[in-house]
Specification:
Number of helices: 6
Structural class: alpha+beta
Strand content: 15-25%
Distance between the termini: 66 Å
Number of strands: 9
Number of domains: 1
Largest sheet: 5 strands, mixed
CATH class: Alpha Beta
Strand order of the largest sheet: 5-6-8-7-9
Oligomer: single chain
Shape: globular
């Protein structure tokens, strides 16, 4: 008997295939569709760019490799939205605190006598403060320690059942200390004000060991602009 190749039958076959895969890997509402389920290799995920400087691999990595943690299409769109904010954070932080900026030297006549011997119309470098671990003249990345979490992963790490991580709306950002956390926070708040956008959560968090990180979340709508310092 010859199998039917019409579009309707083909669609039905694909839907049945989805159901079969979903049953096999026990997907929930916020977990992956079959097309994403095939992307099991971290190298493949790292190759999928959400924005120029952030990949899907960065926002789905965890210490628990045994737990399935691939987001749905909806969660991926949420992650893209968050990463667009992080692109702005990365650009502004590097511009203001990391990179060497070059400014023209004023004419000799405009300089005090004590500075005249160094003047000649050449460009001079204005050195901006560096954060810990960065190299002068090189851009410093924004490092995500936790992004999307499947329900299983969120439960494993003790996350809230209403966490923005579950829908791909939140990331935790590694910081060198309270100073860097505050600088990140100010940049994100300024960007929100300038663009008339709101974020949902901007939390500087500290654990009992004295470690800091920045939790940042943006929802598709109903953002609360919750800004706090939290001691765990």
């Amino acid at each position: 008997m010859q199998l039917c190749n019409c579009a309707i039958c083909d669609f039905k076959n694909k839907e049945m295939e989805k159901v079969s895969i979903n049953k096999t890997i026990n997907l929930s509402e916020h977990l992956a569709s079959p097309s994403e389920a095939a992307l099991s290799h971290s190298s493949e995920l790292n190759g999928l760019r959400l924005t120029p400087h952030f990949s899907l691999g960065e926002v789905t990595k965890s210490k628990h490799a045994e737990i399935y943690n691939i987001p749905s299409h909806v969660a991926i769109e949420n992650l893209k939205r968050v990463c667009e904010w992080l692109e702005e954070l990365r650009e502004r932080y590097n511009r203001n605190y990391v990179l060497v900026q070059t400014t023209p030297t004023p004419p000799r006549s405009a300089l005090p006598l004590c500075s005249a011997k160094n003047s000649g119309g050449e460009a001079s470098s204005r050195i901006l403060p560096l954060s810990r671990g960065s190299q002068r003249g090189s851009e410093e990345p924004i490092i995500i320690s936790s992004g999307y979490r499947s329900p299983e992963l969120n439960k494993k790490v003790g996350g809230s059942t209403t966490s923005n991580h579950l829908t791909g709306c939140a990331v935790d950002i590694r910081v060198a200390g309270i100073e860097q956390a505050m600088r990140y926070a100010v940049i994100l708040m300024d960007y929100a004000d300038e663009t008339k956008q709101d974020y949902d959560e901007l939390l500087i968090e500290r654990n009992r060991s004295g470690g800091y990180w920045l939790h940042f979340a943006v929802r598709p709508k109903d953002n609360r602009r919750k800004t706090m310092f939290i001691q765990k």
